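Worked example 4.2. Below are the chains of a multi-component assembly; read each line carefully before continuing.
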Amino acid sequence: MSILVVGSVALDSLKTPFGKREEALGGSATFFSMAASFFNKVNIVATVGKDFPKRYINLFEEKSIGTEGLQLTNGKTFRWKGWYGYDLNTAHTIYTHLNVFKDFRPEVPADLKDSEYVFLANIDPDLQLSVLKQVSRPKLVACDSMNYWIETKKKSLMKLLKHVDLFLLNDGEARQLTGETNLLTAARKVLSYGPKAVVVKKGEHGVIYFSRSSHFISPAYLLETVRDPTGAGDTFAGGMIGYLSTAKNIDSRSIRKSIIYGSILASFTVEGFSVDRLTEISMADIRRRYEHFKKITRF
Amino acid sequence: MSILVVGSVALDSLKTPFGKREEALGGSATFFSMAASFFNKVNIVATVGKDFPKRYINLFEEKSIGTEGLQLTNGKTFRWKGWYGYDLNTAHTIYTHLNVFKDFRPEVPADLKDSEYVFLANIDPDLQLSVLKQVSRPKLVACDSMNYWIETKKKSLMKLLKHVDLFLLNDGEARQLTGETNLLTAARKVLSYGPKAVVVKKGEHGVIYFSRSSHFISPAYLLETVRDPTGAGDTFAGGMIGYLSTAKNIDSRSIRKSIIYGSILASFTVEGFSVDRLTEISMADIRRRYEHFKKITRF
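Applying the procedure described above to all two chains together yields the following structure tokens:
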């Protein structure tokens, strides 16, 4: 019943109008697994350099996040530096140093090959495909991507999409991938590429879910304090897949609940820098916000 | 139990990527009353010039929209010309000819002074105030405004806000009026200006409702076809106030329902040019879309 995630574990230096951080814990696999760990056991497949702070490994261990597949490589950890202005929807990159990620070859440890829930976070689609080949028969495969891969590796991405159940992407990416302005049309087109369902993330404006049989739209949880939006999308995926992995059936009902859990987890992440908020909150906080969300959206 | 609206009745010439129209029926009071007329009797207080096409008066009459307060003035009808690019959220104005609206002094006919539901659509806040003085004891007063009045007549607008129950404005206006970026903070600040409740309209991203005692957030109904967004906000208000005027009590439950009806009505308006769609649909179409909306947002 455990979850496997392949993605990045990184050190982020960033500035927003509400503060700044140097070498904070970041990366898609990090945010995903921190969020999913509230629901289930998660194992990370990624790589870090010899300079990766031990305290972050300890944090993963505290959260029972498996690091067996986290390769320790000679060299430096993946680093991203960027900033956000008052429009927190747009990240401005100062640099991306792939470092040990440049030659990363994901290897799924033998005892994790039977993982039932697999999340292929945003990395080179060829690497995402190589992970898929290493797992035996997952119950659910979800993946993310980004504008860079849509531009430079569309063929590999399209091949990958034939093998995933759930594709998560943001509104801009959906438009870029399909050439359609209208999100409903774009989502329908994405479905025709192979995935059984697609989740279009609209940041502070919520989420749209599409499958052949149903669709679901939800606003985002409204916050008074947004300090750092980094990792919101991966946190969303972690909350979603985390919850789904505990559901008896993957059906319209559990998918809707999982999307709300994803939004709730993401709402905590953006309230603080890095994974700060995810280390502070408890399942009770998550449930409380879930119930509040229900209350303010019901009609 | 009838509804009174003061606002503009106009002739719109516009172009969107999906077509164009010359001298189509437009104006805030028009969209509002066309939408509200599905629920209740509405009366318009506005002015048009001698050139106003008789067929539009006939259309109001067909919809049982009262035109007793629609002054026929020597001169030309208010005209707006504009266009939208693929970003249908932004209207580009080519010209605004106030014409007979320049010297408009709204007069509420004697037998409408006891109207129970009053909507002060977007016009000079001094005129909105003068209408308020002419009605006796309305059960609900709602108003709209725009960036222009916030800029040029903020004092009058602030005075007006002390006398309204419900203030509808869009997200940009909420930020402009309060100087707050965060919508939750902005909405709270707007409440401190006097209105009992505020509705922040986010266009295709839905609606946020705030009062001292409760809040409600909703996505917009998702559409595959958006041809002309003109009048969406006023249609929303018409659907909202229209439904509320039929509710036994104005409480959290009826307000939430009214907001969904507002969104549904607006979703029809933007599917076509001018008021086209509002003349085609029936209450059954509205109810069907309302039920569908419920289905795709429930969790």
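Take a moment to check your reading of the output against the notes. The first strand of chain A starts at residue 3 and ends at 6. The mean pLDDT of chain A is 96.
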